Amino acid sequence: MSVFPGISLKPEVTEFLKSVFLNNEVLAAVGREGAESRFQKLLVCLSHPPSYTCVRASTHLTPLEEIRHKLGEELRKKTFKSSAEDSTVQIFTHPKIPDVLLLPVDGPRPVKQLHPEVVVGAQCGSAVLRGAHVFVPGIIASPKYMKAGDVVSVVSDLEGKCTRGAKSFLGKRAFVGNGVAEMDRSEIFCTDEPAKGIGVRMVEPLYLSPSFDGVLPSLAFLQNLPSVVVGHVLGPHPGERILDMCAAPGGKTCHIAALMGDQGEVVALDKIQNKIDRVLQNAQTLHLRSIKAFCFNSIKAVSSDPTQENEGPPFPPESFDRVLLDAPCSGLGQRPNMGCTWSLKEIRSYQPLQRKLFHTAVRLLKKGGILVYSTCTVILAENEEQVAWALDSFPCLTLQPQEPHIGAEGMLGAGLSPKQLRLLQRFSPELSWDQGGMEAPLPSRADRDTIGFFIAKFLKN
């Protein structure tokens, strides 16, 4: 159900995205009307959250059914404490993925907007739609005399035009729910040190998701469904040496280690130290000891000395059995995303970066090894076009079937054959948007109601 306008983009980005979804191959296959309809659905779909929360269960520590039971008990206690009503929390297993639990999101709900408004950034607004409270860094404007305890409506600044510290804002915004201020306005804006913590505690969110704050941290890890699929597609085996090239915040790194039964070695790279700290923190929380994380630029991760035997990067060529390149990308598949202020130049900057990383990935992969490339964007240039380029640039690579394959096939427009497109996996939530079916049982609709995501799997011959 649509309650927000489509994602707010710069006009040049909207036109670019439209040209992607109305490319000649697509027009020849489905016609202009069909392609235009899909594009419009995409814009609206991206601004809304999925209808469920996906949890990856730590089945390397505890059986799935036991985690499901414990999670239900913990969330029921939390719900009872906050609402003074005893309620059963629905938790479903996924029919094809053995370490996934699915929890329905209640929304959009009939919440009435109030007059005093707190304005938050688009990123903060998106987090609220997925169950978060409003943290102080996300607050841009608040009423002049706001005090702790005031009931306020939270609105998201869709175009990034609100001035920090403003007392009101009349620009393009979207209502995401009501909450109670935890701080006075002066504590948020008039301090020498940047304020931290919760600024508005949401009590009537438009979309009600279960709060996982402090709930079973070692057993329940919040992760989008396609991101969980990536680990299974990579297919790690115990005893292997595996590289995660762009690892932060470590969700996929930890999943790989868990799928190996924590036997072997998972090397995680990222070029920002606090992101590497986050990877190590997640590994510790999930009781995984096979992960080694290094602060290093993955583009430079191949050593010119093949005899080098350092523990860390750079590594000799053909050092890894499997490589995951979950590449930096434009992120235009994330949901909900009500507004993106990036320029077309910024959007287009990712393709050359991804290719540099891909060169390194192929060099570090052993012959007979598996390379998985993934992004969380819907843009052809970062997905299918990269596959076409890779197959042309590296004759040693061949596309491989993916298991599980629960998404759609690849998108037309990059000159790939029908057989090649079937081997790719593109999660395209716009294909089922507004087609009804939301009344269908959650496990049967979950695969269609995801973020936008792309996966390709290669074998190095």
Descriptive report:
With 461 residues, the chain is of the alpha/beta class. Helix content is 30%, strand content 21%. The chain has 13 helices and 18 strands. The protein has helices at 11-21, 24-46, 64-83, 122-129, 185-189, 225-234, 251-259, 273-285, 344-348, 350-364, 384-393, 418-423, 442-445; strands spanning 52-57, 92-93, 100-104, 117-121, 134-135, 139-141, 151-157, 173-181, 198-205, 220-222, 241-244, 265-270, 291-295, 320-326, 365-375, 397-399, 425-427, 453-460. Strands 11, 12, 13, 14, 15, 16, 17 and 18 form an eight-stranded mixed beta sheet that branches. Strands 5-9-8-7-4-6 form a six-stranded mixed beta sheet, with helices on one face. Strands 2-3-1-10 form a four-stranded antiparallel beta sheet, covered by helices on one side. Strand 2 (92-93) and strand 3 form a beta hairpin. The chain is globular, with a radius of gyration of 23 Å. The mean pLDDT is 94.
Structural class: alpha/beta
Basic shape: globular
Q: What is the first-to-last residue Cα distance?
A: 47 Å
> Averaging pLDDT over every residue, what do you get?
94
User: Compute the gyration radius: what is it?
Assistant: 23 Å
Strand runs, count = 18
Strand content: 15-25%
Number of helices: 13
Please give the oligomerization state of what you see.
Answer: single chain
Helix content: 25-40%
Largest sheet: 8 strands, mixed
Q: In terms of per-residue confidence, which ranges show pLDDT below 50 for 5 or more consecutive residues?
A: none
